[in-house]
Amino acid sequence: MLDFSDVTDYKFNSFQATLRKQLSHGFQAQVAYTFSRGYATDNTSNDPNRAQYGENPGYHPQRLAVSYLWNLPNVANAEGLLAKVANGWSLSGVTIVQDGTPLSVYDQRGGSIFGMGGGGLVTSRAQFCAGMGPKNAGTSGSVEQRLGGANGGPGWINVNAFCAIPTIGGVGGGGAGTIYGNSGLGILLGPGQFNWDMSLIKTTKVGGLREDATLQFRADFFNAFNHAQFSNPNAGNSQQPDISLANVGQITSVSVNPRLIQFALKYAF
């Protein structure tokens, strides 16, 4: 087997755009968008003596990040207790919208003719059925409709797009075995993400130890709208789905926790 330690190749190409609004009228914001493709060589699947090039599973092809701060207007003519309660509020947050990461589909039953498969360091990728290709690798519908398992639906992977890996040998007394599958690297994307983290902050001048001392109350909302965001489907080789597993394509975990709220109180002097 070749040593790939000095020939491994990584490449990242992207289009990036940022739009900023400087603080004015109590509001500032930044919008950053990235359209990218990350590629890498792989020698953990199919023929390990040939460096194969495909999409890097560590990158999200599209990502939008929005951050903002809004100092809410004070109530006009408010005095005394009303001014203490109604004024000094601000809202800030970060919103992330991004694609899922590229997934390859494996079949550990492949490569047996080469002494691979069966939990070895090198695993075969899955075999497309005749007439099938990357566009058929995933199921259709919303994420919730594609969870599979106890949650219903077909799962994330279209198992009907894949067939048994071809077998060769077995002629003239020789042993038969499977070759490698013909599907490529990064043939479909995992679940995306749409997350809101927000903070509501109240700053009040209270004096005390110093005349200009302030008391700040804040409430932080992580996944503020309690939007379910899911992890990649059950994995086999290299955290990627394996078509030989009975539960392939089932999504059983989330990538972001359910809504979490925390409160804080700070006295600054």
Rg to the nearest angstrom? 26 Å
Average pLDDT across residues? 88
Give the helices and strands as they follow along the chain: EEEEHEEEEEEEEEE
Largest sheet: 8 strands, antiparallel
Number of helices: 1
Description:
This protein is mainly beta and 269 residues long. It has one helix spanning 80-86; strands spanning 10-24, 27-42, 52-55, 62-71, 89-98, 102-103, 127-128, 162-163, 167-169, 176-178, 188-189, 193-205, 214-222, 260-268. It has one domain (10-268). It has one helix and 14 strands; from the N terminus they run ββββαββββββββββ. The protein starts with 9 loop residues before the first strand and ends with a strand.
Task: Write a concise keyword list for the protein shown above.
1 helix; 8-stranded antiparallel β-sheet; 269 residues; two-stranded antiparallel sheet; mainly beta
